[in-house]
Amino acid sequence: MKLQKITLISFGYFDHDFLQNIAKKIHDEFFITAQVKEAYFDLSDFYDPARRQYDANQLLHYIEKNYSADDAKTIGLFNVDLFIPIFTYIFGQAFLNGRTGIASAYRLSNERYGIDADAELMQERFAKEIIHELGHTFGLKHCHVSDCIMRSGTYVEDIDQKNSGFCQTCNDNLLI
Amino acid sequence: MSKKISILIVDDEDSVRDSLFNWFIEDGYHVECAENAKIALSKIELDYFDIILADIKMPGMDGMELLRRIKSLKNESIVIIMTAFATVDTAVQALKDGAFDYITKPFDPDDLSHLIRNASKQILLKQENEILKDRVVTLENVEDIIGNSEAMKKVLRDVESVSQSNSSIIITGESGTGKELIAKAIHSNSSRKYFPLVSVHCGALTESLLESELFGHEKGAFTGAMYNRKGRFEMADNGTIFLDEIATVSPKMQVELLRVLETKAFVRVGGNKEINSDFRVICATNRNLKQMVEEGIFREDLYYRLNVVNIHVPPLRERSGDIPLLTEYFIKKYCTSMNKPSIPIDSSAIKRLEEFDFPGNIRELENMIERAIVIGNGKKITLKDLPLAKNIINTSGESLYEQEKVHILQILNKYDWNISNSAKALKVDRVTLYNKIKKYDLKSSDKNKEK
Lengths: 176, 451
Prior knowledge:
A: 5-stranded mixed beta sheet; 4-stranded mixed beta sheet; B: alpha/beta; Rossmann fold; Helicase, Ruva Protein, domain 3; 5-stranded parallel beta sheet
């Protein structure tokens, strides 16, 4: 089935313009319209009191089951601290060549690291993180090109060092 | 990266296996999972994994026992131990048992990436090392010793049969026949191949220099001996010492050599401590040692000590059938080193090379080809690029008929078979030259020019 759209579903509080700007960046990258939606469910079911973080694996499966559709790539947007059992934290994750991903803005803000807030940088980082997860849903693995958006990034500084687009190889391999 | 690095994840928790599986798949690795140590061992028996990530706490066999089992199988996989309950004792024990590293769950994502990157680097270095070792052996065995002639085949058979023994060898043959190459091939086919092959050119050193070179010296042993220095026999410990031009060694050194060969022990010049070294001796000479023994120039006892096995390398003129192969090899070698595309050689040039006497043997042929590539037009090596003329006069007989034939051919080649210019140089008219060409059945080396 030909893919028609990308859906961004906000499950946290995000400013309307903030999300629209991100949707535009995504459109510029994939040439597919990114639709922005808002939804709500009780996140406390995904909270791990021992780690004081939210279980990203369970969230990803929940979004896949309840919000994803075959004709779209769906990315759940959160503003909570995500973890998977093996890692101390993650910025987001997605099903490789699947239809669902999640991304969190929680660890992307400057204030989290004791630096002055920078709304524009924050928006840039979140857009890059969402494009990275969408890349996985379109079949891309991590890339070794230093400024490609599909390079694995484990610190927020890594995200800043990346471009907001794909390298030539990743671009050629996108399964759109 | 030549091949995808493979990773086996061994953990009883589904979520850990799934998370790691997804993480590594996204990074482009080949990943498999096992939910316990038993399944892991059965997978390891079937497949080789570059990296094994094993949890310590698992029902049944734990990760530490799995690590010990993997190591007892002489498996070269890199094992990384994971645990949620880190203690210094278990970490130390894991490393003592051969684990590459130890990581505590949950990991910082960057720590895991860093760890896998380091492990991958080690794997690639190991692979590269193996490839280079193979290449070194191949270099000595296959590429550098060229010859399809019966004479050379016999030499190579001899090399193969004596390599595995520890016997002393004398390699005889004219200068430039490749005696050192044969010594290298013997060394690199022997069990001593990963230890040094130490070469000493006895003829290039005076008696006192040779003594200090072979046995080493202590600081202050003679003027200029500022430091202690190991000798070549000491350097060749576990390896092979190659004594080239052994016939040039003085009578005094012959006595010293005999003693060292018999006891495998010596004292450095100016020293008093006996040093033992386990080496194999290969000698080479272009002289007739037996005759030198008869003349009393070379010690008989040393001769018999060295001459356990004799390998005679035939001169190039006795195996002219190898010349096309050798020529092709040298063209390839020098074109590669000069960054030039490989160039062909004219068939008449090859034919002439096969007829050539080559008093300098392979070294002379090699120099000739190198020169031809440097000075030639870069498209084809022709007869005029090869300095063969002088030798042809020597080998073509002493009759006036032969001399005239060769001289005319030389002049024709010099002037690219331009009849007018050649006739002018020979101070004869064109008709006379045509008649001579017909009489001696002379043909141009380049068919195009013939037309």
